[in-house]
Specification:
7-stranded mixed β-sheet, globular, 231 residues, alpha/beta
Length: 231
């Protein structure tokens, strides 16, 4: 990836670092376009093609939450390339200082979650709820950690859906297929990652459900999509 982008890397890194260090100088849309530009070049250099499906399922009105399955550090980058709407991320504290991802998350104004701190977790739920109600979009990995079973899913945690329930916002499931291969296969062969934006689940559909029931429903829809399209 670096070799194929040798001339672009200095400019791309400076642009990313500067934007991440001056986030309030730019609008969310401007920061998002910087990330998409760098992401496209990185994917081209890494010989990774992102096939997207169901982009028209993304709600027209901002203030929704994406819930994808989680296969690894590459997941957000795969979604970012094909998603036309800016979104932020709830990330686990352990990855907030990884170079490059640190700058990407800073540009997204992502929220760090300490899974060992219950009180901080409640504050994250409140913050995401408030921002989604105000028209920001978020992405939350309901599995809590990446699955090491390739395209198989771990259980989705009900607590991950509390912000959506409180904000009464659309839930947009995302099915990722073969995203794990980008970092886990140690290969320079061409790779195709599938990103499926599924039909949004509106508040009226899940308002009377427990969060564990919502989690199970979202997981099943993603699993069904993976079974249908996995090659």
């Amino acid at each position: 990836m670096v070799l194929r982008n040798l001339l672009f890397v200095p400019y791309g890194w400076f642009k990313l670092y500067y934007t991440a260090s001056h986030v309030d100088k730019y609008t969310e849309e401007e920061r998002y376009q910087v990330l998409k530009m760098i992401d496209r070049r990185a994917n081209w250099g890494g010989r990774i093609t992102i096939d997207s499906y169901g982009v028209d399922n993304i709600p027209e009105k901002d203030g929704f939450i994406f819930f994808p399955n989680h296969q690894g550090l590459y997941d957000v980058l795969a979604i970012l390339e094909v998603c036309p709407r800016p979104f932020s991320v709830v990330m686990k504290k352990e990855v907030e200082n990884i170079p490059f991802l640190k700058q990407v998350f800073a540009c997204m104004k992502a929220i760090s979650l300490d899974r060992s701190d219950l009180r901080q977790g409640l504050k994250v739920i409140q913050q995401v709820t408030k921002e989604v109600e105000g028209g920001r979009n978020y992405l939350i990995f309901a599995e809590g950690t990446r699955s090491k079973k390739q395209n198989q899913l771990l259980d989705f945690k009900g607590g991950s859906f509390k912000s959506a329930l409180k904000a009464k916002c659309p839930i947009v499931p995302i099915a990722l297929i073969d995203s794990y291969k980008s970092f886990d296969t140690n290969s320079i062969e061409k790779l195709t990652v599938q990103v499926h934006f599924l039909t949004p689940i509106l508040y009226e559909e899940y308002k009377d459900m427990k969060t564990t029931e919502i989690a199970g429903m979202v997981k099943r829809r993603i699993e069904d999509t993976i079974k249908q399209y996995e090659k």
